[in-house]
Amino acid sequence: MAFFLAVLACFAGASATAQDRLPPAPYAYQQLRDPAQEAKAKALMETLRCLVCQGQSIADSDAPLAGDMRHEVRTKIAAGESPEAIRKWLVARYGNWVTYDPPLDAATALLWFGPLLFLALGGWLAFGRFRRSDGDGESEI
What we know:
Elements: H1 2-16, H2 18-21, H3 35-45, H4 64-78, H5 83-94, H6 109-139
């Protein structure tokens, strides 16, 4: 039984690190030859979120997935696709989380209007508290 568990642990560990053993995609760390195309790719990559790091753009992240995404962006820019078409493709593939500027829809409504709702609730509570404390001061006289 111990031998079976040891073999199982070896296979589980090997599959977890299999992706990191692959070489990076060609355009993950290599810029495009055309400076105008590279500028377009860089501008787009800075607006896309790394799905692993979640706080960095794919331009700044060293995660393997971010390298693959940089490769895809550069390959598609080199093929002549527009940055907006590439963004739509990535959103369709990874969801709205991949972009730093999510669209306004039912899933992101709380994200967009939540701060305004909390501000209004705080103002309403503060107004009620101040109004109540003004009334208490007059009754003591």
